[in-house]
Amino acid sequence: MIPREALEAGLASLAAHKLRAALATLGVVFGVGAVIAMLSIGKGAERQALALVERLGLRNLVVRARELKPEEAREVRKKSLGLSPRDLAAIREAVPGVETAVPRIRLDATRVEAPGARSDAAIFGAAPEQARLARLEVAEGRFLDALDLATSAQVCVLGPGVRRDLFGQAPALGRPVKIGDVWLTVVGVLAPSLGGDSFQGIALGATAREVYLPVSTAERKFERDPLAAPLDEIALGLAPGADSGAAASALAALLSRLHGGAEDFDLVVPEALLAQSRRTQNLFNVVMGAIAGISLLVGGIGIMNIMLASVLERTREIGVRRAVGARGRDIRIQFLAEAFAISGLGGLAGVALGLAIARAVSAYAGWPTVVTLPAIVLATGVALAVGLASGFYPASRAAGLDPIDALRYE
């Protein structure tokens, strides 16, 4: 532990050479700032990845019909119908660990109308279980239910953005809306959610511009492109303890056989996507940590150079102190205190710089950042350790000076 008197004396010595001390701290400032900014960006990216995977469902598997160009679709349809109810039935029967499997249809229509208003939206035919698997929360009314599905009811659930466009601040439940030539009754409004983004190349729509109606209604009362797959998505919920990797392998093999080898579907495994995201993030942390470490190393070299110059300048002062009774240990502590003070001040400035960088990245680049106390403690702790390590050799050299030679030094 460095005595308080030695630390105060070290600060006084630095105050007498402000520019030199400031230059010595620059490496530490940038190193600490880089560590904090890097960890905050990494933590923010991890939190965003978790939020996006929540939208897909960590314990889900998702099969999506691949978008095909018209000429490509004509060739593929010769051997495959695309994602279809037949696939859904086969999955429920043959894929191990599947607890729930629900279909979804995306309609070609993109416009929703109400008396005196209209809105653009992504319109889906869905099953009641879609709300649980896709983490869809309802802010008003209810989601679709089994009776809606069984009776092909002409009802719908609006995203909050569509609701605002059509009805403003007026009540929406029970009001009529029109999609194509079909009139539907609003039974629910979704809560806002994270979306309008992509994760590992998988597009995630924002619920604000989505509309859901029963999948049976979508099949019976709306026309679709004959070249399009009957279903655009099948979401699978796995049973607790089921191996997602084994289920995904079995699912891919089954669909490949059913589709005659046609590559007209994509299989999304959120758990695997999250693992890949974490591996990428860890690599990013290692690279950025190495860059920050180099900055701290350069800062340590700068501190050592300044301290060695200080020893040379104060050789006569060291001789006087030794002559009046100071021990070599006292001299060593004095110079270690100065090195500690330089790294400590640089660490504090680096914390401020790191917080500023994190906020700037969040504000201007749109990346989420999360600054945590462990990141600040780690960065400043490393900076202080670098300062003490860099000051040890100059302090030992000062303590080892011969008092008589030091007094004679000019």
Overview of the molecule:
The chain is α+β, with helices and mostly antiparallel strands and 410 residues long. The chain folds into two domains: 4-52 and 276-408, no CATH class; 59-269, no CATH class. Helix content is 57%, strand content 17%. It contains 14 helices and 14 strands. It has helices spanning 4-16, 18-56, 70-76, 85-94, 130-133, 146-151, 160-167, 215-221, 244-258, 270-313, 315-323, 328-365, 373-399, 403-408; strands at residues 60-65, 98-106, 111-114, 117-120, 122-126, 138-141, 155-158, 176-179, 182-190, 197-199, 202-204, 210-214, 233-238, 265-268. Strands 1, 2, 3, 4, 5, 6, 7, 8, 9, 12, 13 and 14 form a twelve-stranded mixed beta sheet that branches. A two-stranded antiparallel ribbon has the order 10-11. A hairpin with a 2-residue loop joins strand 8 and strand 9. Helix 1 (4-16) crosses helix 12 and helix 2 packs antiparallel against helix 10. Mean pLDDT is 81; it is low at 198-203.
